[in-house]
Design a protein that fits this description.
309 residues; Rossmann fold; 2 domains
Length: 309
């Protein structure tokens, strides 16, 4: 009898303890972190940590009558008196993501400086662009949202007037990653007279294809002008490919845009637009990791395109 009572008490105790333990385990599960609110867009953003050779500056936009920020990397020796007459080629780098900020890609300057300082490539200037509210697109129906025009029509002339650049297409390159890869592709085909080399990386060409197929519509609240995408602009350039562009498409095999970049490369082949490929194994959607592994190849591509003056 005593043994039966003891067994019954054990079962009752187990029945009360197990649910309590289960509840505690469920309570211990980490709650999903709320998504960070997107920072408001600004044409000028502070540079908190400047890599070697990088400074932040602004100019007054003639169209908007407001300051626009940019970051600029000047190579070793630029400020030395013995180089006072030397002019340098420029690579304009278009950041990823939305909205724009001139500080988003400056950490790449660590690799850029390393390769120039070691004389693996000739000295060149890098300019890190603020892409505007929708990053490297023109949106005429929104105030102060002409990101492409601010870059092409205002920033480039400012850089050529303020710094010792080779101020024509023979000394000017274009590069960008992700959203910046989309911008690079559109702008290089729309303005081939401005650049001798262009290196779009990790671009979201699947989204650009949808924009092409849906008459400019990317989403419910974002519609671009018809033809303003990487597919239609490539078709237009292919009909009259002058002046000739040197193009290098680069992407990591682990990036989420890898497959659609392969599709876009086939599309360029079908249009008979010459280009080089740089496919980086086992690298995710990361400009920094691509630069860490193959940044020297990207820099050599531009250097081989520039014509010294």
């Amino acid at each position: 009898m005593t043994r039966r009572i003891t067994r019954t008490l054990a079962v009752m105790l187990l029945a009360t303890v197990v649910p309590a333990t289960t509840t505690l385990a469920q309570d211990a599960k980490p709650k999903p972190k709320p998504s960070k609110p997107r920072a408001p867009f600004r044409w000028v953003n502070p540079l908190k940590a400047a890599p070697t050779g990088v400074t932040h500056a602004t100019f007054v936009s003639p169209s908007m009558k407001t300051d626009v920020g940019f970051c600029i990397y000047l190579p070793p020796g630029y400020a030395e008196p013995r180089n006072a007459e030397t002019r340098y080629p420029v690579v304009y780098y278009l950041h990823g993501g939305r909205p724009g900020s001139e500080t988003k890609s400056v950490r790449l300057a660590t690799f850029i400086h390393q390769h120039i300082a070691s004389e693996a490539v000739p000295p060149m200037i890098y300019v890190f662009v603020n892409g505007g509210p929708v990053s490297h697109y023109n949106l005429p129906d929104r105030k102060h949202a002409m990101g492409e025009d601010v870059f092409v029509k205002e920033l480039i002339p400012h850089i050529d007037g303020r710094y010792r650049t080779i101020a024509d297409r023979n000394g000017r390159g274009l590069e960008g990653f992700s959203q910046g890869g989309r911008g690079t592709t559109r702008i290089m085909f729309k303005h081939p007279e401005l650049f001798c080399s262009a290196a779009p990386g990790g671009a979201g060409h699947a989204t650009e294809k949808r924009i092409s197929e849906e008459n400019g519509r990317e989403s419910e609240g974002l519609v671009f002008a018809p033809g303003y995408n990487t597919w239609d602009l490539a078709r237009k350039y292919a009909k009259n490919p002058t002046p000739k562009l040197r193009i290098l498409v680069h992407v990591g095999t682990k990036g989420f845009n890898y497959e659609n970049n392969l599709e876009y490369m086939k599309f360029l082949d079908s249009l008979k637009i010459p280009f080089a490929r740089l496919i980086v194994p086992n690298v995710p959607h990361s400009a920094a990791q691509i630069y860490e592994k193959r940044g020297l190849d990207l820099m050599k591509f531009h250097a081989e395109s520039f014509q010294p003056q």
